[in-house]
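Module 6 notes. Inverse folding takes a fixed backbone as the condition and produces residue identities as the prediction. Think of it as a translation problem where the source language is geometry and the target language is the twenty amino acids. Below is one complete input and output pair. Work through it position by position during the lab.
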């Protein structure tokens, strides 16, 4: 297997055109490749500046999970901090987690930030939405978002050998008129849903509105956690 390390977008596009398979930390693909055979050509974006940014409103796809720190919103930092073990976080990347893994602990965080992914094709780079990236498994360059007023992340403890633990991510954003909107994303099993409701009338009113969305069909235990998280994030903003 030849591993290419493009240092510019145009070089990465050349690699794509040659059929290079994207690779992050290889934490997922390695075992499969050992079993089924290695691809002829792979490429890592770790030397591509656009894929390695860690900024208050941007994160590159080649960033290792353990490098996600307080430069980014709390929800994303905490999401990255809960993935697997320290060894996994030192090797796995944002792109591998969002596009390549089935658990995708970063996805609820990205959804509540309303993050916009930039993807690469052999002839262009463009911004799209997360659902398209996941459905089509595009080559992800990175994410951009606008800083929320507050954000939070909670992952319930995992049962050994059991279903993926419940994840609830929340963020409050202000619109151009100063009205606040609460975004909530919940991973229940392998499914992730996200909803947005106004939240200027307080936590109970916001939770009541959420109950009228698909979030109202979540199991009672999950809705209790959502209610706590909604109260927590809106309380943290009281008086601000
Ligand atoms: C012990 C263990 C525990 C784990 N626990 C968790 C957990 O709690 N939560 C969780 O969410 N995940 C968990 N994972 C999964 C972990 O997040 C993934 O292993 C990791 O995210 C894959 O990242 P990687 O960079 O190593 O991807 P790789 O193994 O390199 O690639 C995985 C797939 O993603 C594709 N890919 C890589 N980069 C890109 C890109 N930029 N654009 C498009 N496609 C790309 C590759 O082509 C490949 O198909 C765990 C994994 C292990 C081994």
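Target side of the pair, the amino acids:
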């Amino acid at each position: 297997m030849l591993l290419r390390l493009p240092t510019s977008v145009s070089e990465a596009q050349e690699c794509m055109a040659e059929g290079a398979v994207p690779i992050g930390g290889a934490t997922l693909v390695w075992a499969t490749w050992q079993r089924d055979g290695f691809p002829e050509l792979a490429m890592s974006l770790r030397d591509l500046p656009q894929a390695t940014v860690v900024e208050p409103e941007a994160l590159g796809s080649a960033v290792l999970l353990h490098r996600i720190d307080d430069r980014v919103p709390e929800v994303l930092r905490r999401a990255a901090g809960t993935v697997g073990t320290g060894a996994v976080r030192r090797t796995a990347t944002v792109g591998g987690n969002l596009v390549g893994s089935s658990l995708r602990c970063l996805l609820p965080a990205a959804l509540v930030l309303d993050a916009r992914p930039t993807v690469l094709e052999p002839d262009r780079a463009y911004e799209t939405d997360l659902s398209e990236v996941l459905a089509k498994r595009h080559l992800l360059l990175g994410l951009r978002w606008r800083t929320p007023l507050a954000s939070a992340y909670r992952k319930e403890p995992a049962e050994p050998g059991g279903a993926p633990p419940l994840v609830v991510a929340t963020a409050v954003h202000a619109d151009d008129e100063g009205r606040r909107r609460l975004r909530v994303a919940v991973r229940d099993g392998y499914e992730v849903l996200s909803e947005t409701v106004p939240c200027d009338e307080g936590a109970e009113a916001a939770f009541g509105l959420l109950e009228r969305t698909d979030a109202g069909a979540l199991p009672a235990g999950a809705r209790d956690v959502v209610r706590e998280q909604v109260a927590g994030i809106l309380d943290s903003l009281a008086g601000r």
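Reference fact for the lab report: Residues 150-236 form one domain.
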